[in-house]
Amino acid sequence: MQYERLIERSRLPPERMFAEHMLMVADMDFLVTSVRRLLRTAAAARKVASEQQPQLKLALGTFNSRWGNLTKVRDALEHSDTAADFPLPAVGIPASGQGDGEFTFMWSGGNLDLGKLYADACSIVRAIVSVIDSAELESDGPGTLNEVGSKSAPGPG
Question: 144-145 and 103-106: which strand pairing?
Answer without folding.
Answer: unpaired
